[in-house]
Predict the structure.
Amino acid sequence: MTTLGVKGPVRIRREHAAVLVTFGLLVAMFAAGSIVYPAFGSGQVVVDLFIDNGFLLVIAIGMTFVILTGGIDLSVGAVAALSGMLCAFLLGQWHWPVAVVLPLVLLVGVGFGFGMGYVIHHFEIQPFIATLAGMFLARGLCFVISVDQISITHPFFTEWAQTRIPLGEETNLTPTVLIGLVVFAVAFWTLHYTRFGRAVYAIGGNDQSALLMGLPVARTRIRAYMVSGLCSALGGILFAFYTISASGLHEVGTELDAIAAVVIGGTLLTGGSGYVVGTVLGVMLLGTIQTILRFQGTLSSWWTRIAIGVLLLLFILLQRLLGSSRTRR
Amino acid sequence: MPGAVLEMIGVSKGFPGVRALADVDFRLFPGEIHALMGENGAGKSTLIKVLTGVYSADAGEVRLGGERVSVTGPQHAQTLGISTVYQEVNLCPNLTVAENVFIGREPSKAGAIRWREIRRRAAELLTRFGVDVDPGARLDTCSLAIQQLVAIVRAVDISAKVLILDEPTSSLDRDEVEQLFTVMRRLRDDGVAILFVSHFLDQVYEVSDRMTVLRNGALVGEYQTARLSRIDLVGHMTGRTLSTLEQLHVRDETARVQAEPVLKADGVGRKGAIAPFDLEIHPGEVVGLAGLLGSGRTEAARLMFGADVADSGTVALGGASVPLRSPNAAIQHGVAFCPENRKSEGLIEDLTVGENIVLALQAANGWLRPLSQAKRQELVGRYMTALRITPADPDMPARNLSGGNQQKVLLARWLITQPKLLILDEPTRGIDVGAKAEIQKLVVSLAEDGVAVLFVSAELEEVLRISHKIEVLRDRRLIAEIGNAASVTPEGILEIIANGTTS
């Protein structure tokens, strides 16, 4: 009671511990990579992590909102692929202006999120099932647009893909990196400084209590899925910038990468505990593993999957340990 | 006396087949602590739910500050100035104390929450109510009592006209109850009208100013607490005289058979739960476990059932040493266990009463040999009659029963398997005086039939009333074993707990 109004000393809370572990692992892995491969330690490798995983970062940030409410969104990869297809089709076939297409595509993503969130909340459907349906729906719609891969020739996309923003001597950023960082900043602010963000945590902690405390549970839960839909659509557009093409087969399994990144970042799958910073670190960690394997050169890329599997298992066990010590009063 | 802040006039509420409230009048004045008394199923919960808008009344009206209101839900009730704090704390365990007080109405500037302001105001509020807790602590690191106080602080800060406390003390120990009462009295002095529901008569007499008694959905009367004796109160609640309760005091001390113990524990213990202890329970013997909350009562009971595995010592059941590695092993040897938390650990609310009752027997028989319909009906009928489960409808979902009757269903489930040793963990917690007496009587009659009973209860009076032998626990250690006699009093046991000696 004596610390009235004064910030106490920085306490390391248990929920911070998971993020710190991820951070430590990331630093350790990066240091190991730099020691083994001298070229690894350059700034460009760090930036490339963001460039290569920018779309995943954005999608995983959206996923963080949903998982914090205690839900899950399996549709993100399919919605991202659909967004790419819509961009390619509307720009290439119908020649709509970019200024119309991009907002429209984002709106479609939000619409998907709203639909799934509505069904999940008002019909009390398991998020797993509802978003699985959304995933099939979005994936199917991709193939309605085109069965084949479409390359995107619109100048806005090709120019975007080549834009480099110099950062120091040998390091270059892409606009994707900036977008990813902006999304992160907005997500962080939303989760920690808005009522919506706090309600997301509250629902994940105990949705019945949240209801009885007078929080707008329905609105908050649906909005979380809308955020995820928006981020998926944005992620899909970023991926289209990155590959300058779209296909119904793009981003298959991305939802699982996103979930893995969120969990490795220390967010509890049961909801209510976690940080969007952790998600960024989780995505970076996955990217670092890939980069190390690329530098190594001889190992198959499937080793990435194995590494992710092992990491995921470790982190879930870690959460269990942290969680079980919490239940004891 | 000023006018009533809240008034209910002629309120009725019925459910299919049940008349939950019939023409009930109720008044609540500012600056009073008003106890709502009644047995389980008397209509207390229904009355509260009508007040908070969970149910809408079939007839009658609710007046708030003299004006007629129709409450549409808990949300609406809160905006009208009626806040409720339930036994189960309805807060978010993953947020800090301060945030739990302010969530949903955070002070903000330009859309951004002002955390500094939240922390400052929460600290002020907590200090004002005398709640000693760091506002930055996560709620789930606080004790249940603190959580409840935080819920009250939140409720009162939102709207301070009427505060409903629905069995807030069931899970608190004596000190924590005192702390709660201090806060309640402070609020009363500030002019808040408090409606208090509790099954503990002592607490009601300690803290309440007036009380309203309900029985079978009807109003019995409104009384000044100081002018109503306990005997009269219980009479009003049950509609019976106390003689049925008193009969239990006549214990047959010689009834115990000094045969081979049903259960013999030798140095059984588990690190962090309970220190190694010895225990013998004979057929027809009721052994009471007494101790404060957190003294290791439940932990000891769980070891005897294999719900937790002991890391030292041996348990012999019926003379043969048995490794109790799982509840299944214990069940095979005729041990039955009614857990403390009937909602989460025992009763399956979606199944019917009948299905709940036959569950354990069916499990013991094996799922491949289903009981015949006729056999099932006969058994369920017999035990429902024997335990006086009301309403006597085996096809009713268990969730619709009152707490006392749910407890009886759980008892029936285990009795039907005809156990040699019955472990009861707080079987009378949160149920009313009448049902309590019935369950106590049942335990005594079971013992007379030769069943050994291990009885865990927070209420010393109850333990004393029915046990032959009392094991006293403190700080997760068995500190004394006393044969029950007329000379043993609750005060004496408290002294043992306090001093750790039998002198």
Notes: The radius of gyration of chain B is 24 Å. The first helix of chain B runs from residue 44 to 51.
